[in-house]
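User: Assemble these into one structure.

Assistant: Restating your components, then the assembled model:
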Amino acid sequence: MGETFVIVGGDAAGMSAASKAKRDDPDLDVIVFEKGEWVSYAACGMPYYVKGAVDDLDDLVAVTPEEFREERDVDLRTGHEVVSIDPEAKVVTVEADGERFEQPYDHLLIGTGAHAIEPPFDGIDLDGVFTIHDMDEADAIDDYVDAHDPETAAIVGGGYVGIEMAEALDERGLSVSLYEMLPHVLQPFGDPVAGVVEDHLREQGVDLRLDTPVEGFSGDGRVERVELEDGTVPADLVIVGVGVAPNTDLAEEAGIELGPTGAIATDEYGRTNAPDVYAAGDCAEATNVVTGDPDHVPLALTANRAGRAIGQTVAGEPTRVGGTAGTAIVKAFDLGAARTGIVDEDEAREAGFDPASVTITAPTRPHYYPGAEDLRVTLVADRESGRLLGGSVVGRDGAKRIDTVATALSAGMTVDEVESLDLAYAPPFSPVWDPILTAAKVLSGNLD
Amino acid sequence: MGETFVIVGGDAAGMSAASKAKRDDPDLDVIVFEKGEWVSYAACGMPYYVKGAVDDLDDLVAVTPEEFREERDVDLRTGHEVVSIDPEAKVVTVEADGERFEQPYDHLLIGTGAHAIEPPFDGIDLDGVFTIHDMDEADAIDDYVDAHDPETAAIVGGGYVGIEMAEALDERGLSVSLYEMLPHVLQPFGDPVAGVVEDHLREQGVDLRLDTPVEGFSGDGRVERVELEDGTVPADLVIVGVGVAPNTDLAEEAGIELGPTGAIATDEYGRTNAPDVYAAGDCAEATNVVTGDPDHVPLALTANRAGRAIGQTVAGEPTRVGGTAGTAIVKAFDLGAARTGIVDEDEAREAGFDPASVTITAPTRPHYYPGAEDLRVTLVADRESGRLLGGSVVGRDGAKRIDTVATALSAGMTVDEVESLDLAYAPPFSPVWDPILTAAKVLSGNLD
């Protein structure tokens, strides 16, 4: 008789852990409690379903519940909500179909995810006002567009969800306005990226309003208007995308410690302060590879990787969950924008560094080769050590070049070492000096 | 009165050194002797000129002779051939317009480049048989196609020049055959890349003949046929692209040491064994970052970087030239293929490692996102240390992902460290697990 590994939440972290643990130790009883019906789905693909680039919502499901149950031998129970954890007794209480029962565990993983923040806007409960954080919401937005043929959409929040939804709804034929209370969109990407993205959004016909807090929404049952400080704007559909917050209630009530970011504190193996209780994914902290501090980066790769590592640990091979560089990439109409590590000098100073930075614009191919596009690259470094701290890129082509920066960050490289990298060159792919190398070359000069 | 920096050869290494030295130390007299008329040109762009993707040969010139002379204050003398070096007297002998003169130097850079190897094929001097290593040759091929309207082209050699020229001449409407004496094309890229490229070349209509040595060419003044061991094949145009060899005669005659690869031996600052004599670019060795051994990688970035570093050193700030990972990328019709470091187990064993390797095929985007393409990734590692030694990629999209591998190599990362990299994910750009991460994950499992 094997041990029992109980997992709370059936998305990226939970299902990665379940699959890996069961594969590595088939004697383990692996039970996943998921309160909803969807498991293991690509939340990042939802805007592209609304856009119409993905035909079927089911296409976003990586592995179906049946496959988990039958092929991977995971005891997956959808419609089951874990309502409390008793870390002393090593038991969880589960509610399903109005009944409660207790389930003992030897190992527990909390993978409860995050939820979309809903500010206390007037009229947030009107029909036609949506957040987009789960599959049912994506489906509901799609249905609403089909059913009511809205002409105008208002998007509240200029983060990546807001920008992806602007593109999606523009593609669906709506006239889109976007409201950001801060001076710039994509705040975690830094100003040099924001400037390029903002110009592009306007070129694409988005009515972009920066420094513009929204007060609420109004309409007769169904949303008709966005209320601003100084007036109202028509909106037949509203998407609220102002960020996410970790789902920590269950952990907190069980006495499990949260970290400085407000997410569940974990060590390098994903362990919480309670014995044999792990946490991973959007509800948990990860260690930032640049600062060494706890960070909350609710992104898919971090969740998948940590879940998989914890599954391996539970199956008997202790495995570190790995750090995060906060690497992110977003498509904004025809642009790609990406960031990793620390993207500006203010952020670097807050983290205790003495920063220098540079922003350059360089082509992604030689000037003579067809299809060369400008890429704007920002790199940030520490003056004293010469160490690279992070950077950003934005352009119509080549945003995945951020991976070179992310790799250099994990290795703790100096700017001089980055300048010396032997990156790939041929005219169809890059100029002799890749834009990342050019930026490092200029920054290196500034550090002397 | 400043010191005199004499440079032999006006291409990537030489002109990078000249520009950097003069900018950093304007008192320096910088004299460049170039025996031809073209300087600072993108040799890698020549196939795209023949293809018709680049309109004008002059577009491939990065900086014109006039700009070097007038804006950068470099004493550039084209049509000037350095015929000997006397390292004891610190003087070079120069020939121009049939006259000889001596030019003393304080610092000397040998940037004589490489030349296309011309095997002793019968009929290699026939009209219509070309190598493609300099701008005049590119121009001559283009003129020949215009003037003679050839229907068939034979390419001898399946390296990157041969493959780029196959694409170029196919685009010009010729029926192309390609002869490779080895069992596979693109030998330095390894068999997993070669297999994919060979299938693609055949799909594109190239008559690909592997294991097929060419004996010579025949025709009446102008080439008409390729002669093989077992017959002849019609060819109205022939490109011989069987590799390059470093131009070392000048250095050897001056008593300057060559290294094990046959190119000029240099130290980490690009210095030869003669005092104040440097060498850089296609004529010189560089240090391989994986093996630590001298290597000969006649590619543009290595030349540009070493030239620039030597210019900086001569101007008073000693600067290392940097190593090479042997990173290379090539377009083969609709494919991109790239390599870095050590690409297969045989090569790893020869370098003294105990290798493990893996080849996987993974999509460059999630399955549900439009435009996902397969990328084949090979990674090679050392079993004992777990260190990544190199790899290759090939596919219709994403070949620049080799830069992640090249960066990891320079950092000396283990496969586990590569598996932990926080690379960028969003559906338009990558699956959650980038193909490089997937390959590292599988290889890591094999190393256990």
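The mean pLDDT of chain B is 96.
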